[in-house]
Amino acid sequence: MSTENLHSQEAVKKLKELSESARTCMFCTELSTLPNNARPMSLQECDQEGNLWFISSSDSNKNFEIKEDNRVQLYFMNNGSSEYLSIFGKAYIYTDKNTIEDKWSSFANAWFEEGKDDPKVTIIRVTPDETYYWDTKAGKFVSMVTFIASAVTGIKTDNSDGVEGNLTV
């Protein structure tokens, strides 16, 4: 894999592409204790500034943990395309109706009896501090075929089919 660090709008574009493609991440809290608390979370949106938005219940453990320590680690995996993303950042909880209305998804009705008017609805925004990505440009199938061909023929493959690096938003 080659290294390509991205900055500003180019980094936000890659962050948005990879996170929205995977859509689900492992959302880790209580980073100062081991093992970290982790749970799958569905991404609502990665906005134009690189913030990641989630819907959560006010009585969830993650909300309590964020109130104590807002450092979080997110791991996105899109195995079908061999794309991976690790995000360390800060989480902020919103309870105002405007933010809930803006970020609401009908998919969330499954978790909230009263829909977006449920008093337990909160919105979590994660602002990335450090982000690292792995992106196999050719995709999983082509990378696997290339690897197998190299193993059979003994000819070293060109490692340029993938790229990894820091995203500075």
UniProtKB/TrEMBL annotation:
InterPro entries the record matches: Split_barrel_FMN-bd, Stress-Dev_Protein, YdaG_split_barrel_FMN-bd
Record Pfam families: Pyrid_ox_like (PF16242)
Transmembrane stretches, start-end: none
Residues annotated as domain General stress protein FMN-binding split barrel: 10-158
PANTHER family: PROTEIN BLI-3
Protein name: Uncharacterized stress protein (General stress protein 26)
Species of origin: Chryseobacterium taklimakanense
